[in-house]
Design a protein that fits this description.
The chain is α+β, with helices and mostly antiparallel strands. It contains 4 helices and 6 strands.
Amino acid sequence: MNRGDLSAVCQLESASQRDSWSIQHFADELVNPVAKIDLYWCRDVLAGFLCSWLIAGELQIQNLATLPSMRRRGIAARLLQHAIARSRRSGLSSVCLEVRTGNAPAIALYQRFGFVATGRRTAYYPDGEDACLMTYQLDTAIE
């Protein structure tokens, strides 16, 4: 992602997330030395993105979104697969994330990849919904 992508990323974010990040939040990620934002384009349409942080030998997925009209086409899975493969090549030990406990499609996707629930954050989201903590161990996982 680069600065020229900010508008498209924010539009996708607003269309797909209840509590969307601001354009400033994404701009801050561009200059954050531990952050990486991968984009998935279908022709001229931004179909998805994955924002992650590399911290202490671990990849932390901060945000994964797919344009609602492009869901169920494997876009989130491709982004996740790319991030996991890059992490494995970099010698990282694990990937972790938080997901809304009510987001059954996302939880199912993460479980298909081998993520396991490792905890819960009570009232984590602004609307009071809990977050499920999930972790993927790269050293024992099969790609």
